[in-house]
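Item description
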Amino acid sequence: MVKQLLFSATDNLSKLFLISFIFISCNSSKTNAVNSQSKETVNKPLTGEFDKQGHRGCRGLMPENTVPAMLNALGLGVTTLEMDVSISKDKKVFLSHEPFFNHEITTRPDGGFIDEIKEKSFNTYEMNYADILKFDVGMKPHPRFADQQKIKVVKPLLSDVFKAVKEYMMTARRPVPFYNIETKSLPETDNKYHPAPAEFVELLMKEIKENGVEDFVIIQSFDFRTLKYLHQHYPKIKTAMLVEGDSKSSFRKQIKDMGFTPDIYSPEFTMVIPDLIKDCHDLNMKIIPWTVNDKDKIKELKKMGVDGIITDYPNLFNE
């Protein structure tokens, strides 16, 4: 009888163990599947939806072209981080709208400010990045963006932005954003404030490739030389042609002069009319105007059929 009870208990324990093993295995598989699905989602960009771009991160709310501006924009739900890059003397690629220290946003290492008439003498292409780090670009009150939060911050390396965003997205567990990166160059300032197009693009692409974000970047520029170089040497990289509102060239001539059809046409928002939207879509190009800081205008342009908006205030997308 004792042997029978012992055998029965052992048999029941074995069955319980077997059931528990199956339960744990099933749940483990489900967990792995969910984790795998989450990881897959995190590693895919948002595509095929209205593109909400934060201009210089979120210039209206945080110091422009800085890591805090980019992370804050992500918290507001942008799908693309818009930014500008310049090159230092020691060939570092860093975020900056101008290849010099702008008087509106800069505090010198000694705590003083920069006069507008002297700002271009603070040429960052003639400075090593270690020296660029000595200047603050977040504490000076901005004369045109009163709501901009003031924090002590520097011009970051592009690679540091990539890393900060990657860490943020892993925690937030949402699809990674695109990076809309503008090359700040002009023919008349080649080798004075920046490298010539070929070197500029190669330095930029080196950072993009090393950080594994080729599928997540758009390179934009008013300097179409950089876009032509990209199309020739890196045809898989998405390109966007930036167009000023006072451009005298017609849409068709602009595309003809470019020599290829970019992925995105990005005009000043005042240029956008239904015919321009149709022209872009007929060429299978997206049209994403800049820089729209009015909620009603955003809604109007969206209703007209633009594919996205670039704004200093990405919080407007949520209102």
Summary: DSSP finds nine helices and nine strands in the chain.
